[in-house]
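A further point concerns the way the authors explain their paired sequence and structure data. Showing the layout once, in full, would remove most of the difficulty. For illustration, here is how one protein appears when written out as sequence plus structure tokens:
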Amino acid sequence: MLAPIVLGTGSFTRYAPFGDARQIIVRRGRDPGRRREPELSRRQVEVGGRPAWLVRVRQLLSPPAANPRIKPLSPEALRAYSPESEVLYLPGIEVSIPREPAGFSDDEVTMILGALQLDTA
């Protein structure tokens, strides 16, 4: 079981829930639900007894420009330029959870969702 991840009042916070290099990002603000990435899927989950949407998106990052003197990127390296994340939408809060490549597994996402707590102070 993870220690509670308290979604406090800061506008941008990073958490490393398992103590490694992987991080989730929490954003607060006026328009946290506005995304520009392509939506792959969505599912309804429960966080703190409240229903919320968990939306899987693909980020579109530009790979380096092709250079005939440099070996092309491998398919694995190219995947790093279109990573997938799941984004949890709560009122006024957006929690981004990296998935592919080298992100969190299904079981880890379930543990992260169970550890989230809203700061009511």
